[in-house]
Amino acid sequence: MPTDVSSKTPGDPVQTAPAEQTVQTPAAGGTAAPPAKMSRESVTVIATLLVATFVVILNETIMNVALQRLMVDLGVTAPTVQWLSTGFMLTMAVVIPTTGFILQRLSTRAVFMLAMGLFSGGTLLAAVAPGFGILLLARIIQAGGTAIMLPLLMTTILTLVPVTRRGFVMGNVSIAISVAPAMGPTVSGLILEHFSWRFMFVFVLPIAVAAFAIGARFLTNIGENEKTRLDVLSVLLTVPAFGGLVYGLSQIGGGEGGPGSPAIIALAVGVIAMVAFVLRQLRLQKSAAPLLDLRAFTFRMFTVSVLLLVVAMIALFGAVILLPLYLQEIRGLTSLETGLTLLPGGLAMGLLGPFIGRLFDKVGPLPLTVTGSSLLVLALFQFSLLDADTPVPWIIALHVGLSLGLALIFTPAFTTGLNPLPPHLYSHGSAIMSTLQQVAGAAGTALLVSIYAVVSAASGMVAGMHAAFLTASVIAVAAVVLAAMMRKTAAVESPAAELAGAAH
Hints:
Blueprint (H helix, E strand, L loop, with lengths): L39 H23 L4 H8 L3 H4 L1 H13 L3 H7 L2 H21 L3 H29 L5 H29 L4 H20 L13 H22 L8 H26 L12 H31 L4 H29 L2 H18 L8 H27 L7 H34 L1 H23 L11 H8 L2
C-alpha cells in the first residue's frame, strides 16, 4: 500500500481550504485544472474492492437471524451460540488495529488476496462444519478477512481518487457499508425459510470466490511498500485492549453487568491494556514505526470526524438491535417480516450514497452533517414514542428517515476526516476509524440493550423500548454539536491520485 512520505511532518496540521480546490498537476504546468475522471485501471481496482467489501459486510449480519435455528440444530444453549457473533466481533476488534502495519508492509494485491482468501476459506469451512466448534473457528477466520477489507478499500480510495472526486466515490462506499447490513436479515430470513442454515454460506461462497478470482486477475499493486518493523508487544496489547473492551461491552449488553461479573473484569482489563497500548504507540512514534500511528489525531478535522462517527455508530447499532426486538417481541413479526420492514431504510441509505457524495463535493460537510444529525435526533425521539399499536408503515418511514440522517453523516465524516492526512497516515487513519466504529457499536449495543432490559423487567417491554430510544436520542444530540464543527478540509493529494487526474 502507499507509503510515500509527505514533505510535511506527521504532526503538522494541514491548513484548511475549500475541499473543491483544484489539484496542481505536472501536466497542467502549474495551472489549476480539475481531473476529468479516474483511469480505467483505478476504476477496476476500486470496483473490485467495493464488491468484495459488500460481500464480507453482508456476511457479518447474515448470522444474527439464524441463531435460534442453530441452537436447535447444533444442540447448544443461547449463551453458547451467541459466541458466533461475539467471536466475530472480538476478532474484528483485534485484527483491525494491525491493518495499518499490514497495508504498509504488503502490496495491494497481496493484502486483497489475504483478506479474500481468509474470508473464502472461512466461508467454505462454515458451510461444511460438522459441529459448533468448527463453525465458531470458521467465523473467526471469516472475521480476519473482513477486518482487513474496509481499511484496504478506504486507503486505496485515498491513494487513487483525485480530491475533487473523493466525496462521490466515498458515497459509493456507503452502498457497501449500509445496504449490506440491511440486506443481511432479509437474505438470511429468505434462506432459512426454504433451506438449512448451511446455505447462508453456500450462497455467499461463489460470490466470494468470484471476487477473489477477479482480484487475482485484474488487481494491480498501488504505491510502494514500506519496510516497517512489527512491534510484537503492541500486537499482544491489542488482544486485551480492544478485545477486552468489545467483549465486556457486548456481555453487559446481554445483561452480564453485575459487580464482579466477567463483563466488568473484561472492561477493567481492557481499559488498563488500552492505556498501555496508547503509551506504547506514543513512545514508538518518537523512534520507530508504531502499530497504530496516533499522530492522525493531530489533525483537528480527523478528530472531529472520528468523534462524530463514534456517536453515529452508537445510535445506529442501538437501533439495529432494538428495532428487531420491538418488531418481534412486541409486534410479533417473523424474522423475514422484520427483515423486510427494515430493508427500505438500508436501501435508501445505500442508494442515496453517491448522490450525497456528489453534493459533498459541491457544498462541503457542514450542511450535510447538520441536517443528518438533526434527522437522527428526530427519528430516534419518534422511536421512543412507539407503542404496541404503532402502524408498521410509520415505523418504516421513521427508519428511512433515520437511515437518511446516517447517510448524510457517514460520507462527509469519512471524507472530511481522512482528506487532510498525509499519504503515510492513510492506512493508520482508516484503521483507527474502523477500530473505533467496532468499539462504538459494542458500546451502543451494551448501553441501550441494558437500559431496555432493566426498564422492561420493572415496567414492561414497551416502557423499556421508550427508555432505550430516548437515551439514544439524547446521545445523538452530541452528533448535532459535532456536526456543527465540521469544516471543509484541504487534502494532501497522493502521487497516484495526481497521476490519475493528470492522465485525463
